[in-house]
Design brief:
Order of helices and strands: EHEHH
Structural class: alpha+beta
Low-confidence stretches: none
Strand order of the largest sheet: 1-2
Mean pLDDT: 86
Strand content: 5-15%
Shape: globular
Helix content: 25-40%
Oligomer: single chain
Number of strands: 2
Radius of gyration: 13 Å
Length: 83
């Protein structure tokens, strides 16, 4: 995961439907990177999955990214500055 220096943030990964392989991987990631958390949702449409993930978020600003996006190293800082 790229460094996100200068930003107080969390990464909440919403697993859309049970997925043991991704769940095991994300558990290892969250142990190494405490800003990464995971929630497993019932299989849903993309919009419903996002709606179900919202109550799990701890921050004031929510920014959704799909699994095919690789944000630049200063992404979290730039988002925080925008808000």
């Amino acid at each position: 995961m790229p460094s996100q220096e200068g930003a107080d943030f969390e990464v909440l990964v919403a697993v859309n439907g049970p997925d043991p392989v991704n769940e095991a991987f994300l558990k290892r990631v969250s142990q190494a990177r405490p800003e990464v958390r995971m929630t497993v949702l019932p299989a849903s449409s993309k919009g419903r999955a996002r709606a179900l993930a919202i109550p799990e978020a701890r921050g004031e600003v929510l920014y959704f990214l799909d699994d095919d996006v690789l944000p630049p190293p200063d992404f979290a800082r730039r988002v925080a500055q925008a808000f």
